[in-house]
Hints:
Blueprint: H1 3-7, E1 16-20, H2 25-36, E2 40-45, H3 48-58, E3 62-66, H4 72-86, E4 91-94, H5 109-137, E5 140-145, H6 158-178, E6 183-188, H7 211-222, H8 233-244, E7 255-256
Parallel strand pairs: 1-2, 1-4, 2-3, 4-5, 5-6, 6-7
Amino acid sequence: MTDSETADPFGLTDRVAVVTGAGSGIGRATAQVLAAAGAYVVCADVNGAAAGATAESIGKSAGAATLDVTDRAAVFALIENTAAERGRLDILCNIAGIIRTGRVLDVPEADLDAVLAVNFKGTFHACQAAARIMCANGGGSIVNTASGAVDTAQPEIMSYSVSKAAVVQLTRNLAAEVGRYGVRVNAVAPGLVRTAMTGRHYLRPDGSMDETARAAAEKPLRRLSPLGMIGEPEDIAYAVRYLVSDAARFVTGQILRPNGGVAMPW
């Protein structure tokens, strides 16, 4: 281990990161946390204005890009251009994701296709593009986003759960293939976190918060956690920071579960 790694194994000074889904929630928090640790962060999101707002909140150590992760060519172009322009690519965080609800017997094929296209294939495209560069350069770290849904069976989120289970296996397979090149691949599997995705249960049509509905929705879920907590985006962002840092240099092919203890697989 080098002196700089020993001095601050969690530091990310001079590293270059691409974060998808950076326009809001966990993606935005992750971009901000990585930048605060010293990284230059490309904030990518299908909502270009939201990506720009995240980059603006960070300042000079961030850039913004409009990116639809279902567009393979666009994903490759962003990642390859970032590496060329910044001279390196050290970190990829695949956080872009969507959800469609419905009973297994009723899920339209279009909904299944849409969820798989973003959550799994979007992650796959970015992993391919980044891992090729990282392998050629002799190192790097990729963090994918799974979900607590891979550990439990919940009604009406089959498409989402299946897509995230696929991300888990992709993470493990890729880690096994690229470790020899110094590239690490891990995933986070968040539990319930306050984001726009979970907010669908208590946001009003105008986007404002219905505090009474939120309290009612969260009360039974808090009981499932030994900590009695609902997570915040920053809780996941700090887990990601650990995984991409030198503090986790001996960690690959793992699924880190910041979920308040809701699921304890054994």
